[in-house]
Amino acid sequence: xxxxxxxxxxxxxxxxxxxxxxxxxxxxxxxxxxxxxxxxxxxxxxxxxxxxxxxxxxxxxxxxxxxxxxxxxxxxxxxxxxxxxxxxxxxxxxxxxxxxxxxxxxxxxxx
Length: 111
Known about the structure:
The protein is mainly alpha-helical.
């Protein structure tokens, strides 16, 4: 049974708060663009695992909330645009390939 909308929203808010803090800390620890790459790949793995195995409350908390706040396409795009062309292409390709592979691996491991 799916819980009421306000309950799911509360889970999203709690997960989002945690994901934002983790993203900030990883960004400070690894710097740009390594921090952004790390959170995007890790978030893809976690999201793949959650979507393959969890119920609606866990999807709201971890998938939508935590992973939604942890991962960042906009920062990835900005960092890629600021890098020299060859390095930007490598960064973009690595992010897309590693992110997709991580999501697939997370889903396969959780299934």
